[in-house]
Design a protein that fits this description.
Elements: H1 2-53, H2 56-85
């Protein structure tokens, strides 16, 4: 009896997981876009601070963070587009 209960619980878990896939994709896309914009903004601040302090390493890290943010924002856009295609 315990095994059957466990199997039903597992099946319910997987059924719920399948239903949430589209919502998760859109939510993940939104999160990635917001995080990407935040990374871009903090990268710009870091780069400008590096300019002010004449710190080349900080400038480079700021630029890298901006590129990372752009890529992350692009990923979010792709995830949302995929979600829109599944509707």
């Amino acid at each position: 009896m315990n095994d059957e209960y466990t199997r039903r619980q597992d099946q319910d878990y997987y059924d719920d997981e399948d239903e949430l896939t589209d919502e998760d994709l859109r939510a993940r896309g939104d999160k990635n876009s917001v995080k990407g914009k935040m990374n871009e903004a903090s990268g710009k601040v870091q780069e400008k601070f590096g300019d002010l302090t004449d710190n080349e390493r900080m400038q480079a890290e700021g630029k890298m963070k901006q590129w990372q943010g752009e890529a992350q924002e692009g990923l979010g856009d792709i995830e949302r587009d995929l979600d829109d295609d599944n509707l």
